[in-house]
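Here is one chain, start to finish.
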Amino acid sequence: MDQQINKARDELRGQVAAIAIAGAEKILAREIDARSHQELLTRLAGQI
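Its structure:
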């Protein structure tokens, strides 16, 4: 049981890291104003 919990945690960490990296790539890929930046952060937070 503990092994399954640890495996699930590791998978979740990987998914969160992938989402964070994808969000950072989107931010860096284009020049954005403050409003667009906030919208991207809000969408990213919703995915986490």
